[in-house]
Write a structure and sequence with these properties.
The chain has 629 residues and is an alpha+beta fold. It is built from 17 helices and 18 strands. A hairpin with a 2-residue loop joins strand 12 and strand 13.
């Protein structure tokens, strides 16, 4: 027999902590024979959270959606559920209970008289709890159903997983940072060790280089470091100086050795400073003998004059020491100095103990000049005399026989010529310096022209060393005719030699680059700072648009454009056009000629000499260009 269903109302209870549980079940029991819907008597979450008891909601933390029997999500720590059912009061027959938890049980459980059902330690997930009665007649009543969801444990929630990811990322980041820091510490430690070792090596290298610099000339030392050996070089003109203490053997026997060495160190040290002052290379000292040479390792034409100047200064120093010694009632030494000019061979001898030395008849002859000289005087050979006679007062003293050479003339140098000395007291004056610089100008010319010939690019068909040589020659020609001084001639000729040296680095800003070469090279040739800046101004005056401010600038500007008045004008124009085309300045010869026509028409030479030297008028040159176009 089936019992009719009862009608139920569902009521929303309270909400705390986000859980939904059945609120209050009130039943209106119509007058029927049997109630077959289970009635919830007690509902417990966890072990002690009583939510429903005796038909009343004990906890206000849970509620049930109205008409839906769905609990709000249950925290994982409350994953044990306790259900207790009771018979309705009007039930007049014994009932069996049957339970089924979807998501946990596979099917309905067996009927039991136990009105209590308990589930413990449920996993997270969705569940539906079912309960029903079975009366004595074996009929099942309506099912009581309750939907609920058990949340995952906190440590498995999405936010915690996110925290896990962040935490793991932080750990990995910390590990990486720690390892990076450790690597940085190790790297810093290694770098510090390397830097310390490098500094030590640099210091040792500096010591070695300084030692080499004291033993060998700089270029020779550089060659030795780069190649491991030094090739011997022949110099066509070097001036060798020998000095020796007169009667040194007797002095050494009578004098205390320590004092003797100290005295030798004193004047040898001064000799070294004098040699350095005049760009003379010290070769060696043997006992009381001192040997040095000019014109090596850097070739120059002024070495005979510079070596004689050094010899005079050395003798003056020894005379000063002798005078001071006599004032104290002591004896002092006299030295003999001999000088000869000629070819030598220079190189490095030795493998473990290196030394820079020179060989040749010139060395032997210089030694003979010293031994044939007199104490307190400078004895020079005839070949040296030929180079220095315009600067010094020399006294002929006869001939000396030399093996394989015959007889050689000898001269005593008595000092600088009066007109070349300060107050005629023996020190070189400005006139002496200018005359010496005129000789140095020949060295400057040789070096810069050789550099330009070797290093200028092949696509420079006009601004090459030939053009530089032409400008230098024209400067001298115009300068002499205009009556400029020797010093002015030096400055304007130097500017002519360097005015296109900037093309060594390219066409762009070549005048400024030329000034860079001037400031870098000329100090080696004894040019003063004021002279160097004057040379730079002269170079910049040749830059377009041309507007010279003084006579020297007019001379170099006229010399630079002297080809405009020569018969080889067209050849020069074609070379210019070719150069401009090769360097993408113009696209054709015609374009360059068109630009030059207006320039030629407006051009005028500044100096009278340049106007006189013009071979072809500018009108004729312009017509020739127009015909070519």
């Amino acid at each position: 027999m089936k019992f009719p269903r009862k009608k139920y109302n569902y009521l929303l209870i309270f909400f705390i902590s986000g859980l939904l549980v059945p609120g209050y079940l009130s039943a209106q029991a119509p007058e029927q024979k049997e109630i077959l819907v289970p009635v919830l008597n007690k509902f417990i979450l966890g072990n002690d959270s009583v939510c429903f008891s005796n038909g009343n909601w004990v906890s206000d933390n849970f509620y049930i959606d109205l008409g839906k029997y769905t609990l709000s999500p249950i925290p994982f720590y409350l994953n044990s559920l306790y259900f207790e059912f009771k018979l309705p009061e009007n039930s007049n027959s014994p009932l069996n209970f049957q339970y089924f938890l979807e998501g946990f049980d596979d099917d309905w459980l067996n009927f039991t008289f136990n009105n209590i059902k308990e589930y413990t330690y449920l996993d997270e997930g969705e569940y539906i709890f079912h309960a029903r009665y079975l009366n004595a007649a074996g009929e099942a009543g309506e099912t009581f159903s309750l939907n609920f969801r058990i949340m995952p444990p906190v440590y498995r929630s999405k936010i915690v997983y996110f925290i896990y990811v962040i935490f793991v990322a932080l750990i990995l980041w910390s590990i990486i940072k720690a390892r990076s820091f450790q690597f940085a510490k190790e790297r810093y430690k290694l770098e510090r060790i390397i830097n310390e070792r490098t500094e030590e090596m640099v210091k040792e290298m500096d010591k070695t280089e300084n030692l080499l610099a004291n033993v060998l000339p700089k270029d020779t030392a550089d060659e030795l470091k780069s190649k491991g050996k030094v090739a011997k070089k022949k110099y066509k003109m070097a001036t060798v100086l020998f000095s020796d203490i007169q009667g040194f053997t007797k002095i050494a026997e009578e004098m205390n050795p320590e004092k003797l060495i100290d005295e030798l160190d004193t004047f040898f040290f001064h000799f070294d400073s004098v040699a350095e002052k005049y760009n003379i290379e010290k070769i060696k000292t043997i006992g009381d003998a001192y040997m040095c040479a000019g014109g090596i390792p850097d070739k120059n034409r002024t070495n005979p004059i510079e070596v004689v100047l050094a010899a005079i200064e050395m003798q003056e120093y020894m005379k000063k020491l002798k005078k001071e010694a006599k004032s104290r009632g002591q004896n002092f030494w006299d030295i003999r100095i001999g000088i000869h000019t000629g070819p030598v061979i220079a190189g490095v001898v030795g493998q473990k103990k290196l030394s820079y030395d020179i060989w040749g008849d010139t060395v032997n002859t210089a030694s003979r000049m010293e031994s044939s000289g007199e104490a307190g005087k400078v004895n020079i050979s005839g070949s040296t005399y030929d180079f220095v006679k315009g600067f010094f007062i020399c006294e002929y003293r006869g001939k000396m026989p030399v093996k394989y050479k015959g007889e050689i003339d000898m001269y005593f140098v008595n000092g600088i010529r009066p007109e070349l000395s300060i107050n005629m007291k023996g020190s070189p004056n400005e006139k002496f310096r200018i005359r010496l610089q005129l000789l140095r100008l020949l060295d400057v010319e040789e070096d810069i022209l050789m550099k330009m010939e070797k290093e200028l690019r092949e696509n420079l068909s006009f601004h090459n060393f030939k053009h530089t040589l032409n400008v230098s020659t024209q400067v001298e020609l115009i300068g002499r005719a205009e009556g400029i001084s020797d010093e002015e001639m030096i400055l304007v000729q130097t500017a002519a030699l360097f005015h296109d040296s900037g093309f060594l680095d390219g066409l762009k800003n070549h005048k400024q680059t030329s000034c860079f070469y001037v400031r870098d090279i000329l100090p080696k040739y004894g040019y003063l700072n004021d002279q160097i800046e004057t040379v730079c101004k002269l170079i910049m005056s040749t830059q377009a648009p041309i507007s010279p401010d003084n006579k020297l600038e007019e001379i170099i500007c006229d010399a630079n454009l002297a080809y405009l008045g020569r018969v080889d004008f067209i050849d020069n124009m074609k070379n210019q056009a070719k150069e401009m085309i090769n360097n993408n300045v113009v696209s054709s010869e015609k374009e360059w000629f068109e630009k030059q026509i207006s320039f030629i028409k407006d051009h005028e030479f500044y100096t009278a000499t340049a106007r006189v030297l013009r071979e072809v008028s500018k009108e004729e040159q312009g017509k020739i260009l127009e015909e070519l176009i």
